Amino acid sequence: MTDVNANNPFEAMQARLRVAAQLYGLEDALFKVFMLPSRSMIVSLPVLMDDGRWEVFTGYRVQHNIARGPAKGGIRYDLGVTLDEVKALSAWMTWKCAVVEVPFGGGKGGIVCDPSKMSQAELERLTRRYIAEIMDIIGPDRDVPAPDVGTNSQTMAWVLDTYSMHVRKTENAVVTGKPLGIGGSLGRTEATGRGVLIVAREAMQRLGKPLAGATVAVQGFGNVGSQSARLLHEAGARIVAVSDIRGAVRNDRGLDIHALLKHLAETKSVVGFKGGEAMDPAELLLLPVDVLVPAALENQITEVNAAKVKAKVIVEGANGPTTPRPIRSFSTMASSWCPTSSPTPAGSPSATSSGCRTARASTGASGRSTNASWSTWSTPSTPSSTPPTSTRPTPASAPTSWPSTGSARPCTTGASTPDGSDPGACLVTALRGRHYFPPASSLQPPASRLQPPDFPPLTDGGPGP
């Protein structure tokens, strides 16, 4: 068994896919197809800077699978962008689009840059050059980009304009997340945050507690984090801590989120907000809150800090903030893990954990939220420490009948069923696709489905950037 690097999101994605494939006896051919993206493009982007210098940036666009339709996924501007990160994000988009019945495949893009240190003119030139370089593989019937970390509706307007210039016609359908005036969707900005709100509300109800008055900590205060905090605040929750790339602020009596958003608009950071006290951003994940929302980047909850997490419910707003090993750890903890990974289609689920009670929110590309789906898993007294003996899935026989109350049952993809539906079955639906793979309705999870899987051993489980 090859060790999995916990800080490599692509290896983490593969580890979770391997577990899902083993649980459902996914045939070897499909397993191999979904372990790797169908296309990866790397481009060099020479850009004239405002001071007259030329800089050459590196950009990526990855299409994981297009069996269900054109690829779909955001464009990320960040210094930490790597090809492996983009490959993982594109795979997660494959699962999410299939689960919420959006007729797209999985795609993702990114540019290695620091947008906070670039002018609007520089960002525009960078965006237009990037789109010109990947023109041959994007389009309404090929690959549809969207905003992600470091990009916004203005970026998408540049994408639309550049593509339209090259094809000699206005092509609004080439991108989502664009301004309303040029065909954007109402509700799209807060769609992911609304998905987080719905999952948090349903999770608290399952714990027998109201969301109103619940304490919440939000890691990351970009679009997902800020909208999640605002909507949770308006629903009566008490936001006690938030963080961004520059720092964190805390107020145990509750932050005034509307005042904080105004401060953010003026200063571009939560740092210095007078309605709270500064705190170590790393400590935010460890606060004893009712709901923890990791809405920043990947690899934030790892085997190093997972045992110190005290939140009752973890609702993922980011992509892959929890590495594989802690997911199994939660089976023996009080925490409930809610994987809601959130590019467009925003807030849709990507994977599921065993030994936990899990929930997920689904928000379609139009910004419409559906309800949460749940799965209750059995929790053994002692988790197994024996790793799988093969990296390939091994088919297993299905039970003759489904267990009764409290056990997972297969779900209908896209359905809103908070009555015990099984996110794992939905994940396999995503794997199978709609065009040339067998229907998910023919799947029956093996008896081992009710036991926590053993993840491969990890190396370097430290927190991400």
Note down, in words, how this protein is organized.
With 465 residues, this protein is an alpha/beta fold. It folds into two domains: 39-182, Rossmann fold (3-Layer(aba) Sandwich); 191-459, 3-Layer(aba) Sandwich (Rossmann fold). The protein has eleven helices and 18 strands. It has helices spanning 9-24, 28-35, 83-99, 120-133, 153-167, 191-206, 223-234, 257-267, 281-284, 324-329, 423-432; strands spanning 4-5, 39-48, 54-65, 71-78, 105-112, 143-147, 215-219, 238-244, 247-250, 277-279, 291-294, 313-315, 336-338, 357-360, 373-376, 409-410, 421-422, 458-459. The strands form five sheets. The protein has a seven-stranded mixed β-sheet with strand order 10-9-8-7-11-12-13. The two termini are 27 Å apart. Mean pLDDT is 75; it is low at 331-335 and 340-465.
CATH architectural group of the largest domain: 3-Layer(aba) Sandwich
Strand segment count:
18
Report on the biggest sheet: 7 strands, mixed
By CATH, the topology of the largest domain is Rossmann fold
**Cα-based radius of gyration, to the nearest Å:** 21 Å
Count of DSSP helices?
11
Run of helices and strands: EHHEEEHEHEHHEHEEHEHEEHEEEEEHE
CATH homologous superfamily (4th level) name of the largest domain: NAD(P)-binding Rossmann-like Domain
Low-pLDDT parts are 331-335, 340-465
The shape, in one word, is globular
What class, by secondary structure content?
A: alpha/beta
Which key phrases capture this entry?
Rossmann fold, 11 helices, 465 residues, seven-stranded mixed beta sheet, five-stranded mixed beta sheet, globular, alpha/beta
